[in-house]
Amino acid sequence: MKYLKNHIFLIFALVSILFSIETYLVFNKIVSTYEEKIAKNYTMIIVSKTKLDDFTFKNVSKITQIDIEDSLSNIQKQLKNFDIDKLKDKLPYFYKVHFKKFPTPIELKEIETELLSNPDIKKVESFKQNQNQTYNLLLMIKLITTIFMVIILFISFLLIVKQLEVWKFEHSERMYIMELFGAPFWFRSAILLKLAIIDSILSIGIIFGIIEYIINSDMYLNLLSQLQIEVNINIFQDLLIFLSISLGISLIATFIVIFSKKDEVI
Amino acid sequence: MSKVVVAKDLYLGYKSETIIEKGGFSLNSGDFVFLTGASGSGKTTIIRHLYGELKAKSGYLNIGGFDMMKISKSKLTYLRRYIGIVFQDYKLIKEWSIEKNVRLPLMIAGINEDIQHKKVSKLLSQVKLAHRADKYPYELSGGEQQRAAVIRAIINEPVLILADEPTGNLDDYSAKLVMELFKFAHELGITVLIATHHLPQSFDIPYRHIHIERKKIYEVS
Fold first, then answer.
1. How much is the ipTM here?
2. Is the pTM value of this prediction over 0.80?
3. Minimal Cα distance from A173: which residue of B?
4. Which of A206, B133, B151, B160 is 20 to 30 A from B140 (CA-CA)?
């Protein structure tokens, strides 16, 4: 109980930091998956006087010619006397542009301008308005998660500073006494380092529990099914990130306490 | 007889304030020395310089062969393993039991844990504190805490014991018991320096008396 009382702030701060980072990672994964999904469905239409060959653009996965044979045969059925071959000769070429990744409005404008600079290209239809709305929504989600992470990191930092002051007060006398009797650095610091490592492991355990609960919750699963995407979140893959952040923060905090004490004594 | 402490032309103090001017004295191995002086005369200042918490302004101070004017942090840490320190306010680690507090110098020295426990148990029994071994400092009287602190200073048989007003907070009976422990340390061949306001009225072993007055150190007897 006393241990928990003394370490609750650090554990809480570490859990908050890890949670905000994991939330950021999960949101980014969801947004990227959703971007890929809408990128697959999204195409730009090009109308060209001539056939387009060797056409390469950054972020463009492929350009396919639109088959108009079906449409022409429908016309032929309705207008029996119509000379379809004549129409065929006069019609331009239609192309669909597929993207690897959902293009940003700037990328879209660049492609559009470059395409229109080709005198053979008569028209480019990017369906810009629909595309921009969706993309801006994704950008907003990304921005909100980033702001959320920064706020949490800031508040957590303040909590850690507060905890450091408590630790300094609690451990300085013991470390001073040990130093008086010739205890080496590792001996004086052993208890604090042990506590820091335990705090980090506890925080990782807590965050694993929270994230596992969330990603298996109905609310989260419903959200993904509504977006019609599948996001594979393997929390164990983030273990290394968690471990380095958690241990890094708690060890830095510990060394601040240890070294600030050292300066006072000698 | 080898010299444990040699001090010559020492200027001691804090920042702009000089407490001891041109002070000199030496302690031989096995000496029992009382350091007296009025409040604020510089007894604690001398003790703090002897265990390396403060650095002299100028002069020469050698402890156990180490030049304290040039000593590095790592060498100071090493030297302190051969110095036992006793404070007026005991300075026991409050989160540790009395047994663990007394064991501290042995733990630092890396002595086998079984030997540590045996040695502590023997010494605590000798000072009638064995039944208090598992207690925490706040559960003991001042006299008991100071006896534990002296045992902690003695346990690894250091070369030098420095005591700063060790009986200042104790009643006469407790003070007498604590002084008996210093005598025991002396019997083990340890050099003992005790800073105190007043000399004990009767003391049955030969001792030296060093006195501080008007920033100077005098050998009285």
1. 0.90
2. no
3. B93
4. B160
